[in-house]
Specification:
Strand content: over 45%
Number of helices: 6
Radius of gyration: 32 Å
Structural class: mainly beta
């Protein structure tokens, strides 16, 4: 107890100083009221849920599969309230799998996110969002905090982004054999690919709220070179060359984000990011000695200023000979009116822009886009138009420059109260421009693709509801380069059509659905056709105020036929095996399952699915079958809120109970 006395004393001093700085009786009264509300709150409230998922997989070709024969995931979510302070706790236990492709140990993630007034704390495994170009969504295991006030806001965290571990590589034993060997203790040593421990931290500070704000943020991540044994890094006798696979990385990102809103009709947002990235920490650091080897003059005034900055910021980032500085940014202007809204965007990301705290960058490219939506005829009809133009090779180092334009339009209308008509069109245009080399006109990429979809559906409501849906689609891929000698062979036309019907029998508590789909794709060198038949059935076995028990079944049967012509022939001749090869594929799948709930507290589901894929090569007389069987079981329990009241509050509630006469 004595250990916590200095901390308690410090907290009291901070609170007292804050009250003195406020300097007003009303502010003091407000704080007293809030403290009193916490004291009078329930001492303890407790609610949450627990659950688990078990999956079993069998495949007759599991030697080629990365699936696990047995996998278990368990979780628990709790919300604890202590005198009005909320403490959410999340526990996830994953990757408990009996397979050579799993982690060497299960993953246990525990996360607590206590909240108090405008503060939110992160304890354990959690994630936050700063900027698209610095830190966004990557998990960390550590501590974090966020604050959102009326004017001021900040966020920060520190933790491990990844643990020092190793992944087991490919093992040619089947999953069942591997499980048997595991139980018997006969597993042999596997090759390993190491992973460094990575520490990351960052902070965001800004002013404003969700509508208008300006934020400055940074993110730092660095791999710990001492987290793995040096023997794992590879040697001359290491046949798997660990030194060519594993590198210790370092990254520092700086970001600026802002948003300005005018009423509800206009908003402008902008994000900018800068990244200092080192792909290998074993590279030599930048100093006067290393610069002199490159012929740099250390007496240069500008270079001296740069070196002075780097020396002072060495604790934050160590520039090395392979370090790179890159920039990225975007801006968006949105307009919103009663019947139309529009968004115009621009984005650029320099080549090799890297953030170890974010991902999914369209590298070395910039693009301009627009998206508009119209609500017409009393909102019964919607029309959307979108377009995006992107060009790469920002660093002018690519052999060629690629330009891609995408555009689309969608129309959806409700007619006569029951007929819904949807029409969509999308197009993609690709064009090749000069880069470090000049494009040859006869081989220049000039591709155009059109996609048109028409989907009408009709619904009849009543005791028994009926729904009929149709869909028609065509895709045209065209080579627009008239100088290309293979132009006609690269043109492909695809057509699809489908019909679906769903019947809901409310009195019988069942739904029945059937559908048929046909597709055909044709070019000068290939012909492909497919027929697919599907069905679904669901039945409510029991439905009361407490119990809901439902069973469902789905199946699909498809037949695919493919014909490939050789380079010596552009026509199909089934009687000439030298010019045409035919492949017939048949697949059949089933999925049977049931869901059960009791008082909305207990929820369980059990599913059994199987699929069988047969490949029959006519000319080679080769027949193979791929059979896949899966069992999935899940269960969750959500317990109602438990409240432990103070003795005084419980006595008051007992005294205030109404007296029943008679």
């Amino acid at each position: 107890m004595k250990v916590f006395l200095p901390s308690i004393n410090l907290c009291v001093r901070v609170i007292f100083l804050g009250v003195m700085l406020l300097g007003s009786v009303s502010a003091q009264a407000q704080i007293k009221d809030k403290i009193k509300s916490h004291i009078e709150a329930d001492p303890l409230t407790f609610s949450g849920s627990v659950g688990t998922t078990l999956q079993s997989l069998f495949n007759n070709r599991d030697v080629y599969s990365a699936g696990s024969p047995f996998a278990l995931t368990a979780y628990a979510n709790f919300n604890i309230g202590i005198y009005g302070f909320n403490i959410p706790i999340n526990i996830n236990l994953m990757n408990i799998a009996a397979t050579q492709f799993s982690f060497p140990r299960p993953q246990l993630n525990i996360n607590m996110t206590p909240q108090w007034r405008n503060f939110r704390f992160h304890i354990g495994t959690s994630s936050m969002h700063f900027s698209n170009y610095t830190y966004s969504g990557m998990n960390f295991t550590g501590l974090g905090a966020e604050y959102q006030g009326k004017v001021f806001r900040f966020a920060g965290f520190y933790g491990a982004m990844q643990a020092a571990t190793r992944f087991k590589e490919y093992d040619n034993r089947s999953a069942i054999r591997y499980l048997a060997d595991s139980l018997l203790g006969l597993n042999v040593h596997d090759y390993d690919m190491p992973q460094y421990k990575r520490i990351g931290y960052g902070a965001k500070i800004g002013v404003g709220n969700n509508r208008n704000y300006l934020d400055l943020n940074f993110f730092k991540a660095k791999d710990d070179t001492n987290s793995l044994p040096m023997t794992w890094m590879g040697s001359n006798n290491d046949t798997v060359h660990r030194d060519s696979l594993v590198f210790a990385k370092e990254n520092f990102n700086l970001g600026l984000s802002g948003r300005v809103s005018i009423g509800k009709w206009f908003a402008l947002t902008a994000n900018a990011g800068a990244s200092l990235y080192t792909p290998d920490q074993h590279s030599s650091p930048i100093n006067n000695a290393t610069l002199s080897t490159l012929g740099a003059d250390s007496t240069d005034a500008q270079l001296g200023k740069v070196m002075g900055i780097l020396d002072k910021a060495g604790w934050l980032f160590t520039p090395r000979m392979n370090s790179q500085l890159r920039f990225a940014g975007d801006a968006a202007a949105s307009f919103n009116f009663s019947h139309v809204n529009a968004v115009f965007t621009y984005r650029f990301v320099q080549a090799d822009y890297t953030s170890l705290g974010a991902s999914r960058f369209s590298q070395n490219a910039h693009g301009l886009g627009a998206n508009t939506n119209f609500r017409l005829f009393r909102n019964t009809t919607t029309l959307s138009l979108a377009g995006y133009l992107q060009r790469d090779n920002l660093d002018h180092k690519q052999v060629f420059t690629n330009q891609v334009a995408t555009y689309s339009t969608n129309l959806s209308a409700l007619l006569f109260g029951a007929l819904n008509m949807a029409v969509a069109y999308s197009g993609v245009s690709q064009y090749q421009l000069d880069g470090t080399k000049q494009v040859n006109d006869s081989t220049r990429t000039n591709q155009l693709a059109h996609n048109i979809t028409v989907s009408p559906s009709y619904t009849i409501e009543g005791d028994n509801s009926h729904n009929i849906s149709l869909n028609f689609n065509t895709v045209q891929n065209r080579n627009m380069n008239k100088l290309n000698p293979n132009k006609s062979k690269q043109d492909v036309s695809t057509y699809t059509a489908g019909l679906g019907y769903t019947l809901s029998l409310t009195a019988k508590r069942m739904d029945i659905g059937v559908n048929y789909d046909y597709s055909s794709s044709l070019s000068k060198t290939n012909s492909y056709t497919s027929h697919a038949l599907g069905g679904s059935f669901s039945y409510i076995i029991a439905k009361t105020d407490k119990v809901n028990f439902k069973a469902n079944y789905m199946m699909s049967l498809s037949f695919n036929k493919n014909e490939d012509a050789t380079a010596n022939s552009v026509t199909y001749d089934p009687t000439d095996p030298e010019n045409t090869a035919k492949t017939n594929n048949v697949s059949f799948s089933n999925r049977l399952g049931a869901t059960f709930s009791y008082k909305n507290l207990h929820n369980a589901s059990l599913y059994l699915s199987s699929s069988n894929y047969s490949d029959n090569i006519v000319i080679g007389q080769h027949i193979s079958t791929d059979f896949d069987l899966r069992i999935n079981f899940s269960y969750s329990y959500s317990f109602a809120k438990r409240i432990i009241k103070s003795k005084k509050k419980a006595d008051d509630e007992e005294d205030n109970k109404p007296i029943l006469e008679g």
